[in-house]
Amino acid sequence: MKVISIGVAVVLLMSASPALAGWEYAKWGMSPKQLVAASKGKAKLGNGESGDRVEREEVGALGTYGNTDGQFTSIFYFRDNKLNQINLKMTGDDRDKRCEHMFSDFTTKYGEPDASSIEGVTSWKDYQGKNIVRLIHLGDMCNIHYEQSGAHNLSL
Question: Which of 19, 62, 63, 135 has its CA 20 to 30 A from that of 52?
Fold first, then answer.
């Protein structure tokens, strides 16, 4: 009987894991209000600037994020009121050097870049987080883009 209970528990845990996919406090499928509540003050409801717009997506929340690679502005994108994309725009000086460091970190964490990568846009598949991860390094711009697997015909 214990073996069956353990098996059922494992199946339940495995089926629950997609709800955990996303980034930091953001989980795929959250509404803007749920995301803001989960952020504990790191994000607020907002529509962003005109340059933040993405076709068929709505900006529903904005925030800030910081790590050892510096500070970022976070933009949260929703389709049908459900989170499916996150864009982190690096701010501050020395973005070029910091972006190169992030490329090394992502290669260590996610493995070799995906074959879909093109010049200036390097992609990885994050199987654990169920994310498509892109490092966009064009000129002095360095952005990290997290996207829900399957959101735009890109899947793991």
Answer: 19
Q: Which CATH architecture describes the domain 2-148?
A: 3-Layer(aba) Sandwich (3.40)
Alpha carbons 118 and 53: distance in angstroms, whole number: 22
In whole angstroms, what is the distance from residue 110 CA to residue 80 CA?
29
Mean pLDDT score of the chain = 83
For residue 154, the model assigns a pLDDT of 55
Give mean pLDDT, residues 64-84.
91
Rounded CA separation 128/137 (Å): 24
pLDDT beyond 50 at 19: no
Residue 124: which pLDDT band, with cuts at 50, 70 and 90?
very high
Say whether pLDDT at 94 is over 80.
Answer: yes
What the block records as the tokens of 72 is 């970022």
Angle in degrees, CA 117, 118, 121, rounded to 5 = 80
